[in-house]
Write a structure and sequence with these properties.
With 150 residues, the protein is mainly β. The chain is built from two helices and ten strands. The strands form two sheets. It has a seven-stranded mixed β-barrel.
Length: 150
């Protein structure tokens, strides 16, 4: 399938990369249909709306820079995306890259959970005070010796 993207224009995407975010993302509830694909710099990914090209997010796996990350969500939230086992879950967090030179941050308070079996997802809100909306990715990646962009 062809998808109009914010960063790359029109690109070809495999149907298997389609994701339905059942209730949309917070602040973007009207958008439910997305595709997910690799960014040109690992360990990042793109989450691109198929409904409006301007709606796109950069994602990262939070466990790459926070080995202690815990995603405590209710059985009801798991049922919302028909997630029966943690092994079937993809977990990402949304990255913010400020234009003003401030550090790149990740929102660990609002992770994205995707069921790999049916490619449906949801954004959770975590109440654990360890997880904030702005974690400095480069600082935490550096502390865990992960190289970005290789």
């Amino acid at each position: 399938m062809k998808v109009e993207t914010k960063a790359f224009g029109l690109i070809e995407i495999d149907e298997k990369q389609k994701v339905t975010i059942t209730k949309g993302l917070f602040g973007f509830e009207d958008f439910k249909d997305f595709v997910i694909f690799d960014a040109e710099h690992q360990p990042f990914y793109w989450l691109q709306s198929t409904e409006l090209k301007e709606v796109a997010f950069i994602l990262i796996n939070p466990f790459l820079f926070r080995k202690d990350f815990e995603l405590n969500i209710s059985d009801e939230e798991q049922a919302e995306i028909e997630l029966e086992s943690p092994e079937n879950a993809l977990i990402f967090v949304i990255v913010t890259i400020p234009q003003d030179g401030c550090p790149m941050t990740a929102n660990l308070q609002g992770p994205l959970l995707i069921n790999k079996q049916n490619m449906t997802g949801m954004q959770a809100i975590l109440t654990d005070s360890r997880w904030r909306t702005k974690h400095d990715i480069m600082q935490e990646l550096s502390a865990s010796n992960v190289q970005v962009g290789n």
